[in-house]
Amino acid sequence: MENFSVFDIIGPRMTGPSSSHTAGAVRLGYIARRIIGAEIESVRFTLYGSFAETGRGHGTDKALIAGILGFMPDDLRIRSAYKFARDEGVAVDFVYSDEHVEHPNTVKIEAVDVNGRETEVVGRSIGGGNILITEINGLEVEVTGDYPTLIIQHHDVPGVISDVSRVLAQLNVNIAYMKVFRHGRGDTDAYMIIESDNPVTPDMQAIIRRLCPAVNELMVI
Question: What global pTM score does this model have?
Fold first, then answer.
C-alpha cells in the first residue's frame, strides 16, 4: 500500500489553478534563482510538453517569472509577475517548444546575471508542487529542494569530498544525503549535492570556502 502525506492529498498553499503548472513552476524559478546566486539581468524560459501546450492558460509563465524574482507559491504578486519583472529591470523571454522530452512539465531556464555570468538550469514539476532539478550548466544532477541543500561546484580532485564532509561535521551540520555528479575524471565542473538536517548559514559557507580550496562555487537552497 502506497503512503501519502497530508501535503500530497491537500496540495500546497498557492496562488493559481494548478499545483504542477503554477506552484511547481514558482518553485522551479525560485530554486533556479538560488542556484544563479546573483541579481538577474535577463532570463529565457523554454517550456516543453504540457508546460508548452497549456502553460499560458494555467499561468505557468507568470509563475516562472515570480519564482525567478524570489516570490513564493502563495504570493499574490504572482498575478502581476510581468510588471514586477519590468520594475526590477529583468528582461524576460519565453520559447514554447514542441521538442519531445522525458517529462511533460519541463522547463529550461537560461539566465544572465548582472555580472554577465550565464547559468542554465533544467527542471521538472512532478506534481503537488514538488520539483526536480535535473541539469545545471549541462551537467545532470538531482535536486529536489525539499531539505536544506548545499550545491558545491568543485575541482574533481582527491580529498575534496572528505574536506567538505569534515568541515560540515565540525560545524555540527548533519548530512542526510550526498551525491557527486561529474562528466568525467578530473572534470573542473563537478558538483556535490548535499542535503542536510539543518541550514548552512552564510558564516558556515564562508568557512567552507576558506578551508576547502578545491571548491569553486557554493550555492544554498
Answer: 0.81
Would the CA dihedral through 128, 134, 135, 136 be positive or negative? positive
- What radius of gyration do the chain's Cα atoms show? 18
Digit-coded pLDDT (tens) for 98-151: 998 888 899 999 999 999 999 999 999 998 889 999 999 888 888 998 889 999
Q: What angle do CA 108, 219, 18 make, to 5 degrees?
A: 40
Question: Domains plus CATH for the chain?
Answer: 11-143 (3.30.1330.90), 149-220 (3.30.70.260)
Query: Average pLDDT of 179-200?
Result: 83
